[in-house]
Amino acid sequence: MRPSFRTLCVILWVLGLVPFANSRELLAVGTEFPGIYVLDPKGEPRGLGVDVMRAIARELGDEVRFEIYPWARAQKLVEEGRADVLVGPYRTAARERRFQFAEPGFYRDRVVFYVRSESDLSWDGSLASLMGQRIAIIHGWIYGERFEAMRGQLDLHVAPSVELAFKLLMANRVDLAASNERDSLPRIEALGIADKVRRIAPVIDTQIGYFALPKGESHRQLRDDIGRVVRQMRADGRLAKLARSYGVTLP
Fold first, then answer.
1. Which of 54, 57, 127, 224 has a Cα at 20 to 30 A from 67?
2. Is CATH 3.40.50.1010 the classification given to domain 110-206?
């Protein structure tokens, strides 16, 4: 009697002739980053970071599962090794001590200040132009070396989300909101305040977004594999094609 297909697969797996034993389920976590990592109306993950991670998993013969959390919580899960990949963090010296980053990064942001439309506030890139101003920032975010160097001397008001930072701005509880354009534009549209706020120059900083992993040897090979596949996707145009579909800028 001929063995069933299922039985044949089991025999081949035991003999090491099929790769099932090497397949992993990777856990990727993040927070809601428009264009990078969001849940669609059906609760399914979407975005450039999701598509790239799925492509990476296929290349490696793995599966990937996505979960969404508040940003600080997502970072903690990866730092503690309870998740494999953090989707989209900017890279800083402080974060280098907590994570290892897969090179290269896969998207770029412009970090900027927003003010109310009627405001006459301006800034010239210096600390002096921000003194006395109330600034909304988002919990767990990094704004670049220049801003971080000023942080201790600024009047900062921490908001749990970009949406709430703009609500603070519109309620006149802060004078400026610090965010990035990619995250801000869909929130501004959703709140119906496109004619009530404006971006001011110069940019605070330009930041690159990465995939980050837990520190240590256990994730070093995965870090290198992610970097290799991202480089392939850049070289063959797949990354640019995906980025265009989400309106995301590449490094």
1. 224
2. no
